[in-house]
Structure formats: structure tokens, C-alpha cells
Amino acid sequence: MFGYLFGDLRNVYVPSGATAYNPPQVAKVDFNQLQQRVDSLELACAALWTLLKHTNGFTDEQLKEIIHQIDASDGQLDGKMTVPAAVCPVCKHKLLSKTATKCLWCGAPLHAGLFNQSDSGL
Ligand SMILES: [Zn+2]
């Protein structure tokens, strides 16, 4: 959505020697690129929050309350949103790869967006 603000970040995560049979043990990540992305996201959040306060009259207390609700929606108040692990629709095992097109347990085909499913409605 805000990709135009943050530039081309396709190479931020570059696994070394990643293959289907040799998953990477340590990811190579450029810290400066990640810091730039965090800075850009922080700026965009501040701009959006300022816009919402000025145009709709929301308060900081309302923002804190909804942040608390969203944080708690995964069952843990830990300051982050944890996406629950996806489960194979056929064998019900926890999926081991976010990019696999087939279940690594039973071979069932997996559809795009399986990891993006959420019951929270958020
Ligand atoms: Zn399966």
C-alpha cells in the first residue's frame, strides 16, 4: 500500500544458500536497510495518526485502547501481533514453510494466502 514511500526492499532479506533441501541457518540482513524501513514506517504511522486526530477527532487514549485490543487478540499482551501458524487443510499438521506450494507432511497442494488467514477479523 505504501510501497512508493519505502522504495524497493525486495533484497532486504537475502538468504544464503537457500534451497528446498538446505534451508538457510542465518539470514543476511542489511541493518541500514531495515532501519530505513522502520524509520519510513514510523513516519507514515505518525502522519496517519496526525491525520486521523485532526480530521476525525480521535484521541491518544482511543489509540492506546485499540492497540491494547489488537495486541491481546492473539492471546498474549506482548507488544506485537503474532500470526498463528497455518495448518494443512488435509492432514492438519502445522505448515513448515511459508513459501511451499505443497504440504511438506502429506503433499496436499496449498493455496496462496494460506498464511494470511486470520479469525480475528483485523
Ligand atoms: Zn498436509
In the predicted model, the low-confidence regions spanning at least 5 consecutive residues are 114-122
Q: What ligands does this structure carry?
A: zinc ion
Instruction: Decide which structural class fits the backbone.
Output: mainly alpha
Taken as a percent bin, the fraction of beta residues is under 5%
SSE order: HEEHH
Number of helical stretches of at least 4 residues: 3
Distance between the termini: 16 Å
* Radius of gyration based on Cα positions: 19 Å
Write the layout of secondary structure elements.
Elements: H1 3-6, E1 13-15, E2 27-29, H2 31-56, H3 60-72
The protein binds zinc ion.
Describe this structure in words.
The chain is mainly α and 122 residues long. It contains three helices and two strands; from the N terminus they run αββαα. Strands 1-2 form a two-stranded antiparallel ribbon. The structure holds zinc ion.
Short description:
This protein is mostly helical. It has helices at 3-6, 31-56, 60-72; strands at residues 13-15, 27-29.
Characteristics:
single chain; binds zinc ion; two-stranded antiparallel sheet; 122 residues; mainly alpha; 3 helices; 5% strand; 2 strands
